[in-house]
Structure formats: structure tokens, C-alpha cells
Amino acid sequence: MEKILSIVTSISTWLWGPPLIILLAGTGIYLTILLKFFQFRYPIYIFQQTFGSIFKKPKGEGTVTPFQALTSALSSTIGASNIVGVPAAIMFGGPGAIFWMWVIALVGMAIKFSESVLAVRYREKNEAGEYVGGPMYYMTKGLNMKWLGVWFAFGLMIELIPSIMVQGNAVSSAVSSSFSINPLYTGIFMALLVGLIVFGGIKRIGKVTEILVPFMAIFYVGAALIIIFMNLNQLPEVFGMIFSYAFQPMAALGGFAGAAVAEVIRWGFARGLYSNEAGLGTAPIAHAAAQTDHPVRQGLWSVIGVLVDTLIVCTATAFVVLSSGVWTEEGAMKDPSALTTIAFTNYFGNAGGMLVTICIIFFVLSTILVVMHYGAKQAEFLFGMKAGAVIKVVYLIAIVLGSVGAAKTIWQFLDLALAGILIPNIIAVLLLSKEVKRLTNEFFTSEQYYLKDIKKKNDPAA
């Protein structure tokens, strides 16, 4: 068994190195060029149509509001990795890794946008009257390749079992270390709480996430900003390190072991891609249910998702770690994932450590909520509505088993399983990229959409 695990670990480490980074970065650059750099050309318009329209009545048909779809998608991407993954990227890639994390986020916006546009374009209504969509639908209806849709749906549905176990373990471990509560009790309580929400469908999940996600993001980023303001004099140096060491190797410094340029780029790209899940095909499942009058309008919300997750939350963590200096302290390399907690504890005492723990608990809980919905939609696509309810029960059991540390060995298979769903999704997005271009051109040149919005803004009486 150990030999098999060793082989699996070697393959997944290699796969998530240059091969997948090149595939995703290349896809992002290709789509950015194909779509005429839309994310750089229309930033103000994108903001107006997303956060600027939260309190306006949504246009078109759908099951949840566009904002609820965004917060549901963000629940999946904003997780413990935003807190513990960024310090690891800094320790193994140096401060310059943050620059490359920003770069891949900007080109990743084109991938996330394309996935969500396709999800709305090929969505359909299920037996309950809810809008459903995602990679399995655009593979089946857009490419006429149902076998690829089945591969994606089955792969994601199964992959989520160990993934939910990992998330359950993260919460129970955090609760156990901070509040000394038995992990089994935490697991049972979590399963009951999550069950009450997910059996209410996407509408109930949307209502929970639209309150929970903004609250937890503002709470965490707000606390991080306090630390950054306390170290305001360090900011010019932090920016200097991020930009200068993006293109040159950095020597060892205190607890930091140094990094070559290839490692700087690799860790920055990997952190950005892991964080915002561009290309994974999960977020489009949430965006497919949104009320919208055109696929591109909902696609703009997915662009904002990358902005919030990577350019705001991950950047806040990076600035806390860099400006506080914890990354250069002796022994920092031993446990990079603890650096955020150490920084918060240094500035806020024990309450700081508790704050990070509470953020991790909420981040992970919201992730479980949404990925269970994603898994249920795969089962529904494959076997019908009843199968969706059955797989939810399986996932609830996985929370309890994961909380007590069961199946730790299969965690090694997670990265491999993720690659197994990412590759077919990227293939589908590339094959359907001309349809994304057609829809984008239609939206930005039509008197019905972009031109009408611009006219209304310039002339409110229009």
C-alpha cells in the first residue's frame, strides 16, 4: 500500500507542477486574447454590473439571484487554503510568488468567465423546476460528447467524498485544538447543520451563503487590514520585494531558505490556480442557476469571484505574513501553514489565534455546503433526482468519518482526482471557445445589452 501511495504522490506532484500550470496558464492567455482582453477593457462596467447591481432586481430567468450564485461559488473557493496556503507559497517561492499569483488570477478570469458563460448557455430545468448546468451539460449539449460529461460528473461526484472528509477533519481539528471538543461530536453537529441547509436545495444554500460569505470575508480581511495598517511603514518594502523577486532568485533570509525563479513562478501560479479554481468546472455549476438575461452578464460575476478570492483575500493574507516579518523568523519553514495564525497572535494575543481558527471553521463549513450541492447535481445528471438525495447522505457520513481522521491515506489521491476532472473540462472549454467568443461579441455589440446599459448610464432618461 505504501508503494502505491508513493507512486500516486509522485505522479500528482509532477502533474500539478509544470504540466497543469502550463495547460491552465496557456488556456487563460489564449482565452484572454480571443476575448480581446475584456477583463482589462471593461473593469468599471464589470463592477457596475456585479457589486453595483446587488440591490437592483435581477434581469431574466433563474433559480437564485446573481449575487447568491456568486457567494455560492465563492463558498467553494474561499477556504482554509486562503489562510494556510498563501504562507506556504511565500516560504517555498518567496515574496515574488505573490506577483505571479496576481498574474495567473488576471488571466484565470478569462477561464472562469468562459466556464460560466457556457454553463448558462447550455443550462436546463430539472424536475423540481430549478435551473441546472455546468461542464457535464455543456459537454453533452454543446459538444455532443455525453461520455465526457459522464466522466466529469462521475469523477467530481466521487472526488468530493475524500474532499469533504478533508474539510471535516480541518474543522474538527481546529475546534479540538482551540476549544478541546471531541472531534466526533464536532463531526456529528456539522453533519446535522449542513444537512438542514443542503436538503433545502440551491435556494436555501444561496440564502445562507449571501449572508455568510460577505460576513466572513469582511471579518477576515478587516482584521488583516488592521495588521497591515500597524505595519504601514513596511508596505513600500513589501511591494518592492514582491515585484523585484518575481524575476530574480532570492537568497536565504532568517527562517526563509531562498528560492530560484522557476520555483517563484511555480508557487505563485499554483497558489492562484488552487485558490480560485479556474478551470476546475465547479463554479459554473453555481452560476448556471442564476437569474440572468444573457450568459455573458452572469460570466461577469465569475470574474468578480476571482477578484475577491485571489486578489483580495489571498493578498490580505500575503501582506499580513510579509509585513509582520513572521516569514523570516527562525523555524518558519517547519510549519508554513501556521504563519498566518502566528502573525495574528503576535498582534492580537490569543484572541488573534482564535480569530483565525473561527475564520477557518466558517470558511470550511461554507465550502462543504456548496461542494455537497455540486456533488448532488452530478448524481442528478447521471442517475436522476433521487440519486442527488442519496449522495447528500453519503457526503454527510463523510463529514463524520473525516472529523475522526478516517481515510487519511486516500487524501493522497485528491490531487490526482482533481486533475481527472480539470483536464476534460479544459478540453471542453477550449473546444467551445468560439461559442464563448460569439456570445461575448453579441453581448458587447448588441443594443439589447452592453450598449443599452451604457446609454442608460449616460442618459438616465433613456
TrEMBL record:
<keyword id="KW-1003">Cell membrane</keyword>
<feature type="transmembrane region" description="Helical">
    <location>
        <begin position="98"/>
        <end position="122"/>
    </location>
</feature>
<feature type="transmembrane region" description="Helical">
    <location>
        <begin position="383"/>
        <end position="404"/>
    </location>
</feature>
<feature type="transmembrane region" description="Helical">
    <location>
        <begin position="347"/>
        <end position="371"/>
    </location>
</feature>
<feature type="transmembrane region" description="Helical">
    <location>
        <begin position="242"/>
        <end position="265"/>
    </location>
</feature>
<keyword id="KW-1133">Transmembrane helix</keyword>
<dbReference type="Pfam" id="PF01235">
    <property type="entry name" value="Na_Ala_symp"/>
</dbReference>
<dbReference type="InterPro" id="IPR001463">
    <property type="entry name" value="Na/Ala_symport"/>
</dbReference>
<dbReference type="GO" id="GO:0005283">
    <property type="term" value="F:amino acid:sodium symporter activity"/>
</dbReference>
<keyword id="KW-0812">Transmembrane</keyword>
<feature type="transmembrane region" description="Helical">
    <location>
        <begin position="211"/>
        <end position="230"/>
    </location>
</feature>
<keyword id="KW-0472">Membrane</keyword>
<feature type="transmembrane region" description="Helical">
    <location>
        <begin position="410"/>
        <end position="432"/>
    </location>
</feature>
<protein>
    <submittedName>
        <fullName>AGCS family alanine or glycine:cation symporter</fullName>
    </submittedName>
</protein>
<feature type="transmembrane region" description="Helical">
    <location>
        <begin position="143"/>
        <end position="164"/>
    </location>
</feature>
<feature type="transmembrane region" description="Helical">
    <location>
        <begin position="20"/>
        <end position="38"/>
    </location>
</feature>
<keyword id="KW-0813">Transport</keyword>
<keyword id="KW-0769">Symport</keyword>
<dbReference type="GO" id="GO:0005886">
    <property type="term" value="C:plasma membrane"/>
</dbReference>
<feature type="transmembrane region" description="Helical">
    <location>
        <begin position="300"/>
        <end position="327"/>
    </location>
</feature>
<comment type="similarity">
    <text>Belongs to the alanine or glycine:cation symporter (AGCS) (TC 2.A.25) family.</text>
</comment>
<feature type="transmembrane region" description="Helical">
    <location>
        <begin position="184"/>
        <end position="202"/>
    </location>
</feature>
